[in-house]
Amino acid sequence: MKRIKPVPLLLAILAVAAIMAIGVFIAEQSLIGIAASTLIFIAVMGAGFAHKKRMR
Questions:
Q1: What pLDDT is stored for residue 56 in this prediction?
Q2: Measuring CA to CA, which residue among 23, 43, 42 is closest to residue 33?
Q3: Is Transmembrane helix among the key words of this record (predicted)?
Q4: How sure is the predictor about 53, in pLDDT bands with cuts at 50, 70 and 90?
Q5: C-alpha triplet 46, 44, 34: angle, nearest 5°
C-alpha cells in the first residue's frame, strides 16, 4: 500500500475547495468572488503541477 503524501493531498483539497467556492459565488452572483476563486484555483493547480514535476 502506498503512503499518502501530505503536500499533494493538501493541494488537491485546496483545488476542490476553490472549485466549490466558484459554484457558491456563481449562486450568489458575485463576480469578484468568482474571479478570486478562479485565480486561486489556477494558482493551486499550477503549484500542484510544479510540485509533481519537481518530485520526478
A1: 85
A2: 23
A3: yes
A4: very high
A5: 115
**C-beta neighbour count of 28 within 10 angstroms:** 10
Three-state secondary structure string covering the chain: CCCCCHHHHHHHHHHHHHHHHHHHHHHHCCHHHHHHHHHHHHHHHHHHHHHHHHHC
Each residue's pLDDT tens digit, 2-36: 898 999 999 999 999 999 999 999 999 999 999 99
List Cα–Cα distances, 41 to 1, 20, 21, 44, in angstroms. 30, 10, 10, 5
pTM of the model as a whole: 0.88
Cα–Cα distance measured from residue 41 to residue 31, given in angstroms and rounded to the nearest whole number: 15
